[in-house]
Amino acid sequence: MKEKLQKIKEEAMNRIAASDDLTKLNDVRVAVLGKKGELTAVLKSMKDVLPEERPAFGQLVNEVRSEIEDKLENAKKALEAKELELRLQNEVIDVTLPAKKNKVGHRHPNTIALEEVERIFIGMGYEVVEGPEVELDYYNFEALNIPANHPAKDEQDTFYINNEIVLRTQTSPVQVREMEKGKLPIRMIAPGRVFRADEVDATHSPSFHQIEGLVIDKHITFSDLKGTLEEFARELFGPDTKVKFRPHHFPFTEPSAEMDVTCFKCGGKGCRFCKGEGWIEILGCGMVHPRVLRMSGIDPEEYSGFAFGVGLERIALLKYEIDDMRLLYENDDRFLKQF
After folding, report:
1. Three-state SS across 240-279?
2. Whole-number Å distance between alpha carbons of 117 and 309
3. With contact defined as beta carbons under 8 Å apart, do 130 and 190 qualify?
4. Which of 46, 53, 65, 282 is deepest in the core (most CB within 10 A)?
5. Residues in domain Aminoacyl-transfer RNA synthetases class-II family profile (predicted)?
6. How many contiguous H segments (helices) and E segments (strands) does the chain have?
7. Residues 279 and 260 sit within 8 Å (Cβ to Cβ)
8. Dihedral angle of Cα 195, 198, 201, 207, to the nearest 10 degrees
9. How far apart (Å, rounded) are the C-alpha atoms in residues 250 and 198?
10. Distance between CA atoms of 268 and 261, rounded to whole angstroms?
11. Is 254 annotated as a binding residue?
12. Are 263 and 273 in contact (CB under 8 A)?
């Protein structure tokens, strides 16, 4: 038995010394000290040892076990230290290097302008309503008092999917859909993307954004329209902003007007920005045509209303003094990060 213990000890020591990683070292522990290990098997055979020799034999087995365990523990610490050193070498960090900058995006100029407009009108009791960009010809034209032979329906001006479906040229169809619901009164703005067959240049694009507003209620007059838009202009461009209304024609409003605002660059004196006129055209507006009300199921004898429409890009161009609309769509980080 003593020779067997000595042999187990020597083989265990040699295997421990030859182990070059923690996995192999654990294999030695299991093979020698585990439940089915060599040393455990020797302990189980103590029943075959003479009773008077068992104390001495048990002490000898425990000494061998203790030596092997000490050897295993020392070898484990040495291998762990070696692995840690290798990791520190491979995962070294140069703290003198500059850190990587975390580039965080921000809102687009169009988004900033839209949120400002929405804030102003929501503060006046309006709600924001959206509608489909691919629209029926009826809602985009017919329901807005634009008959089949109207020049605005020419294929040179409008993107047609087929005879009955178009890419909307304005967000006014959203107003018609709201009027058809019959829930009066109405105070709403309809922002969204629209499409027209325009050539791309500094002030035009085949795809751009509009914000159109609508108010329907009893006893609404042109004075309400003027007061609302004057307050809107002051909130958007500054408290000293003045407005001017010029007669115009729109098929879906009567009477209709274009609204100008005093140049916020020169205060109306005339400069390069307003081309020396002192005024800048900002939007179109008017009282909702009685025929439009009637087609949407509203009695024009009882209800009246006003509507207006402004280009979102135009607001952004004016507010941030951008001289080329194409800059808004080119995704040039040098331009966008200025806002």
Report:
1. CCCEEEEEEEECCEEEEEEEEEECCCCCCCCCCCCCCCCE
2. 12
3. yes
4. 282
5. 117-330
6. 11, 9
7. yes
8. 10
9. 19
10. 9
11. yes
12. yes
Q: What is the pTM of this model?
A: 0.67
Beta carbons within 10 angstroms of residue 136's beta carbon = 15
269: Cβ–Cβ under 8 A, 6 or more apart, which residues? Answer: 263, 278
Give the position of tokens 């939007």.
283
Q: Where are the domains of the chain?
A: 2-90, 109-336
Q: For residue 71, what are its two tokens?
A: 């050897």
E-strand stretches of the chain: 127-128, 134-136, 165-167, 186-195, 207-217, 243-250, 253-262, 279-288, 304-311
Please provide residue 76's backbone torsions phi and psi, each rounded to the nearest 5 degrees: -65, -45
Beta carbons within 10 angstroms of residue 214's beta carbon? 24
Higher local confidence (pLDDT), 162 or 104: 162
pLDDT tens-digit readout, 48-81: 666 666 677 677 777 777 887 888 888 888 888 8
CATH code: domain 109-336 is: 3.30.930.10
Tokens of 138: 């009826």
Q: What are phi and psi of 170, to 5 degrees?
A: -160, 170
- Please state, in angstroms and rounded to a whole number, the distance separating the CA atoms of residues 116 and 210: 14
User: Are the C-beta atoms of 216 and 294 separated by less than 8 Å?
Assistant: no
Report the sign of the C-alpha dihedral through residues 160, 163, 168, 169, in that order. positive
Calculate the CA dihedral of residues 42, 47, 53, 59 and round it to 10 degrees. 40
Dig out the tokens for 65 from the structure.
């076990």
The amino acid occupying position 19 is: S
